[in-house]
Structure formats: C-alpha cells, structure tokens
Amino acid sequence: MTGVSAHDPSGSAAVPDIWAPTPAPIDGRPVDASTPVAVDDAAAARHRSGPSDFGSYFAPLDDDDAWDPPRRTTDDPGHGLAVASIVFGIFFAPLGLVLGLVAARRSSRAGYSRRLGLTGVVVAAVVIVAVVAYGVVALDYLARLSATCAQLGAGEYVDPSGRTVTCG
C-alpha cells in the first residue's frame, strides 16, 4: 500500500490508493510497491483537507492566505458619465459639457465627490473656448485676405511675411 486513499474520510483504515505514484528509490535501493509503507498519522493529517481547512494540498491555510475583503457594491453613479464627459470633451465638446454636468449632479446627489464630473466640464469648456478662438482668428484672416484680393485683383502675390497668396 502506498498511502491513504482520498476516498477514506476517517483516515483510520489504510485503503490502497491506485492513483498514487510509484515510490522513489531510497538510498539507491529500489522500493517494492507491494510492500506496505508505514503512514505517520500526524503527517497524513497535515496533508488531508478537511471541511474546515481550505488550504492547498501542499500547505495548510495561514492567516496571510486569506482573501481580500470584497469591494463595495454601491459605486458612484456618475463615475462612468464623468469619464465619458472627459473623452467627449476632447473630441465633441458640447456633448462632453452636458455629460459632465449630468455626472456631477448624479455624484453629488449620491453623496460622492463631483470632482471628476467637473473635470469633464472644464475640459469641454476649454476645448469650446479654444475652438471659438481659433474660429475667430481664422475668420479674421480670411476676411483680410478677401479684402486684399478685392483690392489687388486676380493673380499671385507675396505678402510681407514671404508667403505666396493666390487671388482669383
């Protein structure tokens, strides 16, 4: 017999375990698998898993092996919208502004910080201001170019900055 069977819950009777590996040679002498092997009860108890012991087969359960406590199930209801408001604030600012306001309101009503939602509002507002400023500068340039081309007529001209301008 090579060990105690996993099917014997008491561990008192030695039942042959057909799935046990062949014993390794000791001191270079081959071991006969048909001869009974003495099983230390304390060693067998350490390797058996009882219903109250959730350790692995090789090591018993320690206090360090315990699982971390579960996370809270109630999350901030505005967190997802706040992240979406930051993303949309960069690529499509009006929608990011609206999502940020809604996220800030949902978070504050649930008792959470509305900082992330307000970050989305600020990002969207900065992008809107930058786009409007760029639009004003571009329209001003096009108005000046149009007025200059109306005075000069059709053709190619070089402006004072050295750029070639084609009117026509």
TrEMBL record:
Keywords: Membrane, Transmembrane, Transmembrane helix. The chain crosses the membrane at residues 81-104, 116-137. Residues 1-33, 46-75 are annotated as: Disordered. This is DUF4190 domain-containing protein. It comes from Frigoribacterium faeni.
